[in-house]
Prior knowledge:
mainly alpha
Amino acid sequence: MRQMEENMVVRQFLDRVCKQVRTKQMHHEIREELLGHIEDRAKLLMLEGNTEEPAVQEAVKQMGDRCFTSDSEFYS
Length: 76
C-alpha cells in the first residue's frame, strides 16, 4: 500500500468510489488510478505552499464527485 493511501481522507474517498463499482476485480485498478491523481495534485498544491495534510484534503476534494462524497466533510 502506498503511503498516501494510509491517509484516512484518501482511504475513505477511495472506499466510497469503489462501493459504487460492482465489479470488485476493478477496485484495485480504480484505487491505483485515483490515488495517482490525488498524489500528483497534492504535490502541486504543496509546491504552491500548502502543507501536506491540507494539500491532500484539497486534492481529494477536487477529485470528489458529490455522488460519492455528498454527506462527507470534504465539502464542509
